[in-house]
UniProtKB/TrEMBL annotation, chain A:
Role noted for this protein: Component of the signal peptidase complex (SPC) which catalyzes the cleavage of N-terminal signal sequences from nascent proteins as they are translocated into the lumen of the endoplasmic reticulum. Dispensable for SPC enzymatic activity.
Protein name: Signal peptidase complex subunit 1
TM segment ranges: 28-46, 52-75
GO BP of this protein: protein targeting to ER; signal peptide processing
Keyword Electron transport: no
GO CC aspect terms: signal peptidase complex
Subcellular location per the Swiss-Prot or TrEMBL entry: Endoplasmic reticulum membrane
InterPro entries referenced in this protein's UniProt entry, alphabetically: Spc1/SPCS1
Membership in a protein family: Belongs to the SPCS1 family.
Assigned keywords, A-Z: Endoplasmic reticulum, Membrane, Transmembrane, Transmembrane helix
From TrEMBL, chain B:
Keywords: Endoplasmic reticulum, Membrane, Signal-anchor, Transmembrane, Transmembrane helix
GO CC, any one term: signal peptidase complex
Membrane found in the keyword field: yes
Region (Disordered): 122-155, 212-246
Protein name, per record: Signal peptidase subunit 3
GO terms of biological process kind: protein targeting to ER; signal peptide processing
The species this protein was found in: Rhizodiscina lignyota
Skewed-composition ranges (Low complexity): 128-137
Annotated TM spans: 12-34
Amino acid sequence: MAEELLEKARDYFEGQIDFEGQRLAENLNVGILVAIGAISFLAGYITQDIALTLWIGLAGTALTFLVVVPPWPFFNRNAVQWLPARSGGAGITVEVDGKKVS
Amino acid sequence: MHSTLVRGQNVFGFFTTVAFSIAAVIAVSVFLFPQNPSAKLQMRNVQVVKGRPHYYSSKREEYAHVKFDLDMDLSSLYNWNTKQVFIWVTAKYPSESPTEPMTEAVIWDAILPSPSEPWHHNQYVHYKPSPSSSSRTLKSKKPSNGTPGILKLKGQRPKYQITDAAGKIAERANCTLELNWNVQPWVGALTWTNRGDYGLWKGLTGGRSKSFDFPGLKSKGEAAGATKEEDLKTMKGAEANRGKPA
């Protein structure tokens, strides 16, 4: 029971996502941060208020963390189809020093 | 990007890149704002008296007390990336040996904040109300709504009396007053007084007084009689905050 719970907690904190999700996360990270950077600079430049640049930039970064870091369901939509496990030992033999190991 | 930790590290890493790039662009953007600073600086009154460096000193030196008029417009130095402008007035006169560089001494200075800077008691003018302003001091601490960088001073007392390295400053010739500044931005490089033109930045026009000579030494009786004692006082800045943390 405890073992099972621990395993679940580990999975939760590790937050693994599938390969397509990893590509998406990378693109979101770069896309959102670059967009926020451009928006914050322009907003500050137009209003002549450098504090606005700072706060938009920080808020946008917080948003990026929120979107990219947790293992959201949309990062796990393309689960990898693994090959079925073969029954143990069938067809494969491993020899070590001429002795059959398995 | 496969796990939470790696994603967190990647987001933070790219955030630092973006933040640095934006800061660099902001630092460069100040060159898009034209500057055309101008100032009129005049010597109003100069007296030389004997004094001592501090109360318990037995050393007697000559001190020059220079009053001046300043009518300046440095408002074009203020843009969205200006934190504050530090200005100071120097008296510049030839050293005793002609082979040595001119002697320069600061007689007055001020911190002129931009309206975006928070209140601080060292500032010469305030654009934000003091966080500790109580009702009884409200009137004196009322924030200014003037244009930053514009100052009109008439008969301004010096903050600092000046003396020469030799301790003798009476009857020295050919002194001029000069206005200097240092722009301190929120992000980017400091810039100092420029008299040449660089792109959209025009150099300072004026900002130098006509040359004058230091008068002879006034004897103590003469100083007390002919001029009021008041005339030899220096002006403390708003930063005269003894006992308070800076």
